[in-house]
TrEMBL record:
Pfam families: Cytochrom_C_asm (PF01578). The chain crosses the membrane at residues 6-24, 36-56, 68-86, 93-111, 131-157, 186-207, 219-239, 251-269. Residues 74-264 form the Cytochrome c assembly protein domain. This is Cytochrome c biogenesis protein CcsA. The keyword Membrane applies. Keywords: Membrane, Transmembrane, Transmembrane helix. It comes from the Bacteria. The keyword Glycoprotein does not apply. PANTHER family: INNER MEMBRANE PROTEIN YPJD. InterPro entries: Cyt_c_assembly (IPR002541), YpjD/HemX (IPR052372).
Length: 270
């Protein structure tokens, strides 16, 4: 796996270089820097995809899912989303912020060292269900991360406009209406994925007669986040809450999910 380790290091270095170019565009509206950053980002995606394939080849039995693979898949999804946005959508800054999160996850993932994770041997009856659950929850996390970033952007722009604080950087941001629309779309996609993943997880728990896991801290916080997202969807459809309040609720919902992320050490689920 020495070649794979070198590849992981290369991904980090190229990723960091891509972020530097995107940051240059963020500060000075440097379109040439943005193009170079986008090219490097595509290269990062290619390297990361190759690294994932190497991990899959070396773990064909999939006897365990480690924290390393879990976060590696999450980072890969963020890079994939940002590449798609960079290629097909003209939404300035969001690619930079998505990749700041993706790079942080990839760098922090080194601390897991590819160590042991949640063994699937105790989930033999529902092994396929667990694979489906992890795939769905990773997709949900990635899309809802994007939605939270849009909500944060909405809150920032709203505050700047209310205070009449104009700047060249603000002119490069989409309108509040556009940001709100993209934020809503992220929730519309992410919440069903989250609901499906939770339903599969509950099914796995019930089939295995491991009812104590329903009181697992990670499960509880994820369900609380899901409830908040449902409140968001209901209020958004009723049109009774202003967009500002909805953005704040989306941030709160996402924070509960983040807390769930960091409860792996206290969780016996996965």
């Amino acid at each position: 796996m020495d070649a794979a380790n070198w590849l992981y290091d290369a991904i980090l270095y190229v990723y960091a270089l891509s972020l530097l170019f995107y940051f240059s565009d963020f500060m000075d509206a440097n379109r040439r820097a943005r193009r170079v950053g986008a090219g490097l980002l595509i290269f990062v995606w290619v390297l990361q995809t190759a690294y994932l394939l190497i991990r899959i080849v070396h773990h064909l039995d999939l006897s365990e899912i480690t924290a390393f693979e879990y976060w590696l898949g999450f980072s890969w999804l963020l890079v994939t989303i940002s590449v798609v946005i960079s290629r097909f959508f003209n939404i300035e800054f969001i690619v930079f912020f998505v990749n700041v999160v993706g790079f942080a996850v990839l760098a922090l993932n080194l601390y897991s060292g590819g160590g042991s994770g949640a063994s699937i041997s105790s989930w033999e009856t529902t092994r396929n269900l667990l694979y489906v659950h992890i795939s769905l929850i990773l997709c949900a996390y990635a899309v809802l991360t994007l939605g939270a970033l849009f909500s944060g952007m909405y809150l920032f722009l709203h505050k700047q406009l209310k205070g009449k604080k104009w700047s060249d950087r603000m002119r490069r941001l989409p309108s509040l209406e556009t940001i709100g629309r993209y934020s809503d779309r992220a929730v519309i996609i992410g919440v069903p994925l989250l609901a499906l993943s939770l339903s599969v997880a509950v099914t796995s728990i019930l089939v295995e007669n491991r009812y104590a896991l329903l009181l697992d801290w990670k499960v509880i916080f994820t369900f609380v986040a899901f409830i908040f997202y449902i409140v968001f969807v209901v209020q958004r459809s009723l049109g009774k809450w202003p967009a500002l309040k909805l953005s704040q609720l989306q941030i709160v919902s996402f924070l509960f999910m983040v807390v769930g992320f960091f409860l792996n050490g206290l969780s016996s689920f996965h």
